[in-house]
Amino acid sequence: MSAVYVRRRRLVAGLAATLLSVAAIAATPTQADTITVHVDAAQIMKLPEKVATIVIGNPLIADAALQSGGILVVTGKGFGSTNMLALDRTGRVVMDKTVQVIGPSGGDLVVVYKGVSRESYSCTPQCAPRITLGDDGKYFGDTLTQTGARLGAAGSSGVK
Question: How far apart are CA 42 and CA 18, in angstroms?
């Protein structure tokens, strides 16, 4: 065997090994590409520079508010996952992440099942109704109506 043939063979083998390792790294998903947020909660993240626009794939699952200084507030609206894109002024994608919204957090949540109906309560330390996605429709609506009436009464009792 000639020395040129041996060197060429080593070069091809080295190149193949490099390509395989690069392919393995590229195929491995990273956790940094997923943002996990609890439903009805917000998470703050720092954006890459020059972000001008944020696009949320499904606004029923998550919402995002762009703040000054490159800060983004991501809020969980409903269970599931969607994508979030950050665009610069030219429309080029500078960030592409998955937003995963999971159930409410905290040890204060108590869920009561009445047959197939579900009700959620916040117990800190006394229990009070807390509407959560998945609660019974009547319970959800009644609690939401009471909350709206209370907020309306509080707003109208102020000094004019």
Answer: 42
